[in-house]
Amino acid sequence: MLYSESKERENRFKISLKIGFPFLVLALIFFYIFKISSNDIESFILFTVLVPIYIYYIFYLIYRGFKSTLIDPITKTFARKEILEVIKKTQNKNHESTIILIIIDNIVDINERYGVSNADEILKIFCEKLDIFFKNYNFKDIAIGRYSGGHFLVVLKGRKKELKHLITIFEKELKNVGINDIEVKIDFSLISSNYDKNINNIIKKLFSLIDLDEEKSDIKPNEFEDIVYNAIEHEKFIFKYQLLQNIDKKENIFEVLTKIYSKEEGVLSRGQIQKVVNHLGREMQFDKKVISILLKELESIDFKDKLVSLKLSPVSLRNTEFRQFITEIFYKSSLKPENFVLVFSENRAYKEINRFKEILNQYKKYGFKIAIDNFGGNNCSLEYIKKLPIDIVKFDIEFTKNIEDEKYKKMVKSYIELLHSLHIKAVIKFIDKEKIYKQVKNFGFDYIQGFIISKPKNLKDL
Length: 462
Description:
By secondary structure, the protein is of the alpha/beta class. It has helices spanning 3-36, 40-67, 80-91, 107-114, 116-136, 160-177, 199-212, 221-234, 270-280, 283-298, 314-317, 320-332, 353-366, 381-387, 397-401, 406-421, 434-441, and strands at 97-104, 143-148, 151-157, 186-192, 237-246, 252-262, 266-269, 306-311, 340-344, 369-375, 392-395, 425-428, 447-449. The model is unreliable at 213-217 (pLDDT under 50).
């Protein structure tokens, strides 16, 4: 039995006592009144008043009992509200505790492949396995709570380093055997329960540790949010430019690397703050500011034989208001859309793909080129190549890392042949060694990017 189930049983027992004890008191009252009173009318009136009150009280407690359940109905772990309460209580205790966020990465895929009922069963068995695993290492009262979907919070007494080692063992065991012959992939992050008094900041930090893979970062989520708000409000953006060299020496591309400045934390890259921007729902506001400031900075540049690529959120690109904003700002600017490449990437394919295609065609009609980043990675880039009007693709860093592997070489050459047949240009990035540079020059890439070509520079250095 899970610790949460035992607490739920305890809660139900308390409710039963609350229902039963007044009944005993009521019975004693009536027994005493009937014994000392000879007036049947008074006894009847008292009976008709107290009994309905007691019945109402019973139904009220039953209603409250169903409404105030401590556990999630599917996994039998603590519900979100309860697990957050457990964390809050832990913070007031003297012993060191660690909070673990565990995410079942492929739960959406399991839902789609095997159905909702099988996915629910896997969630339940997963929690039972997790509970048994920690019990085998002599942990007691293991508080597991379902935060949302396939996201679980675990509160344990112990140090972060030791628990990280244990959860890594659990991850490997689960990866090897799966659940019900179904592969289950998990990811996790850990943090001390005393990291912050604000529980929301703890949860945000746990998610950021997974999303950004930045355990060394001491910036708290609320501080990240303040930095983002401040950057947008006071336009504290810094732009660096990195050359994408055209193999045919025709038209080079300069990629814009957006950074923001914080007085407390220094310069932060877009990658570091993008998740926070998404979480705050500020993608469009952020991208608007970036474009406004960038166009002012680039007004004096001669763009003959040059393109500028700028990464934007797909959420912004699909927004009608944002598209109108871009149209208006370029209409007023001396710069031309023909010199700009709008870059985006997305993990999961947008469902209204035909609508997305229409939107991108409108950008292209206006003069912009469209590029997709991280091509061939763990995302929907291949699906988008099939259905969207893409002009340029930037290969995922995985191909650069494995470019000397024969399998990857064959894949890259096949991909490039396919892309060229679709009139799409190919870019390889992060090339920083002369040996690799000489190899990829003969692969058929249209553009090469990396430190071997040029490091990111500010506009003056360009």
